[in-house]
């Protein structure tokens, strides 16, 4: 039977990890997969995480199952982190948290829930979006459509986005990026979020907000503006949150599906369905990442350590954005790439073409996604002159 199976190319983002490892160029630069890197190019374990793990190792008494919704202690800390400490949504008991294997796991739970409980609803995603969105929803049997997000000059096309949202059939699902839009780095302003809310209300759309980079844009609360506005203004929404990036625990697969319903009764109904979806996918989520997060967020001495480390990462990325544009000045390219300093989060949609990206890889050992998405955390003060020179060469 297997003789009929065709080989397909590997994942465009994850494939870069292997390709980069194999490259023997001593000056090679990895701007591929979205992981934070320090000035040495390493992805270190955060100090707060190390300490939390030491405490867990000492105090953990069992490895038994944690249930389909995951550890209650994890939900209890993620809900206020995402929705706000004094959230009226939490006070009303309208939100449910389900620990998931990463943000990707939360997206797949959401997709399976939509497919089984809201049949006939299509999903609308930004063009461009994280490539895995394009796989996850159709894999669950949901039809996927795109709305514009970036214009021909590589700028946020908010007018195009809004008028497309106004055309979405009533009741469909619209996927929005809470902050640090992946892959572009273009985020909505508070005023733009308010306009999106109005259209979502008018068209009776169900927002699904992907919140994978909380704390990497402007700050933990600032980045949650859109999520909290929608949750407090609408009866229903879906949020897929991740602690992979803001706790640097990528391999521990630590995400959360948050379902917001009209009232506590409806939330419990929805929650009961989510438990089934989780059970059918993987039964129980892995526990360790969630335990780290709840240990940190319930320890008065670890919270400030973690917050400071997150601020350090965010500030470093934003400084590198500005320094990248500066480094291009001698080549007369600073205006062309000025958007990199304006974007937020780990990624920049640089405007480099697939052909230029190929040349950067083949001639300079610089790796990024062919869409021109660069992981800004891969910049460093050591490699910026080399990067600028290489970008100038492929712009010739
Ligand atoms: C990325 O976009 O690079 C990250 O979200 C990692 C991934 O799984 O693609």
UniProtKB/TrEMBL annotation:
Entry keyword set: Aminotransferase, Pyridoxal phosphate, Transferase
InterPro entries (alphabetical): Aminotransferase_I/II_large (IPR004839), Asp_trans (IPR000796), PyrdxlP-dep_Trfase (IPR015424), PyrdxlP-dep_Trfase_major (IPR015421), PyrdxlP-dep_Trfase_small (IPR015422)
A Pfam family assignment: Aminotran_1_2
Cofactor(s) annotated in UniProt: pyridoxal 5'-phosphate
One cellular component (GO) term of this entry: cytosol
TM stretches of this protein: none
KW Transferase (keyword) present: yes
Domain annotation Aminotransferase class I/classII large: ranges: 27-391
SUPFAM superfamilies in alphabetical order: PLP-dependent transferases
GO BP terms: L-phenylalanine biosynthetic process from chorismate via phenylpyruvate
Molecular function via GO: identical protein binding; L-aspartate:2-oxoglutarate aminotransferase activity; L-tyrosine-2-oxoglutarate transaminase activity; pyridoxal phosphate binding
Family: Belongs to the class-I pyridoxal-phosphate-dependent aminotransferase family.
Entries under NCBIfam families matching the protein: PRK09257.1
Quaternary data: Homodimer.
Protein name, per record: Aspartate/tyrosine/aromatic aminotransferase
Species assigned in the record: Vreelandella rituensis
């Amino acid at each position: 039977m297997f003789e009929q199976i065709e080989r397909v190319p590997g994942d465009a983002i994850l494939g870069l990890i292997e390709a980069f490892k194999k490259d023997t160029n001593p000056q090679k630069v990895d701007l591929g997969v979205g992981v934070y890197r320090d000035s040495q190019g390493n992805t270190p374990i955060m100090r707060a995480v190390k300490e939390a793990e030491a405490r867990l190792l000492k105090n953990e008494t069992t490895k038994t199952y944690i249930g389909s919704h995951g550890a209650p202690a994890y939900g209890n800390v993620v809900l206020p982190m995402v929705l706000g400490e004094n959230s009226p949504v939490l006070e009303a008991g309208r939100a449910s948290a389900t620990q998931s294997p990463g943000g990707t796991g939360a997206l797949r739970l959401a997709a399976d829930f939509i497919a089984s409980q809201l049949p006939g609803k299509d999903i609308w995603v930004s063009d461009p979006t994280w490539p895995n969105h394009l796989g996850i929803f159709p894999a669950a049997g949901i039809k996927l459509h795109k709305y514009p997000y970036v214009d021909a000059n590589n700028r946020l096309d908010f007018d195009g986005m809004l008028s497309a949202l106004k055309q979405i059939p009533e009741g469909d699902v619209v996927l929005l990026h809470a902050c640090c839009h992946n892959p572009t780095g273009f985020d909505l302003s508070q005023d733009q979020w308010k306009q999106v809310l109005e259209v979502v209300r008018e068209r009776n759309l169900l927002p699904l907000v992907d919140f994978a980079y909380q704390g990497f844009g402007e700050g933990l609360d600032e980045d949650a503006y859109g999520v909290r506005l929608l949750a407090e203004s609408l009866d229903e929404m879906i949020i897929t949150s991740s602690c992979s990036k803001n706790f640097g625990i990528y391999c521990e697969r630590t995400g959360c599906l948050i379902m917001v319903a009209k009232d506590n009764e409806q939330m419990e109904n929805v929650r009961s369905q989510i438990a089934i979806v989780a059970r059918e996918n993987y039964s129980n989520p892995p526990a360790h990442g969630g335990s780290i997060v709840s240990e940190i967020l319930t320890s008065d001495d670890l919270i400030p350590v973690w917050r400071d480390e997150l601020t350090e990462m965010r500030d470093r990325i934003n400084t590198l954005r500005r320094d990248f544009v500066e480094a291009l000045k001698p080549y007369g390219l600073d205006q062309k790439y000025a958007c990199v300093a304006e974007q937020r989060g780990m990624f920049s949609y640089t405007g480099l073409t697939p052909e230029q990206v190929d040349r950067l890889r083949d001639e300079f050992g610089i790796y990024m996604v062919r869409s021109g998405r660069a992981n800004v955390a891969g910049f460093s003060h050591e490699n910026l002159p080399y990067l600028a020179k290489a970008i100038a060469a492929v712009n010739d």
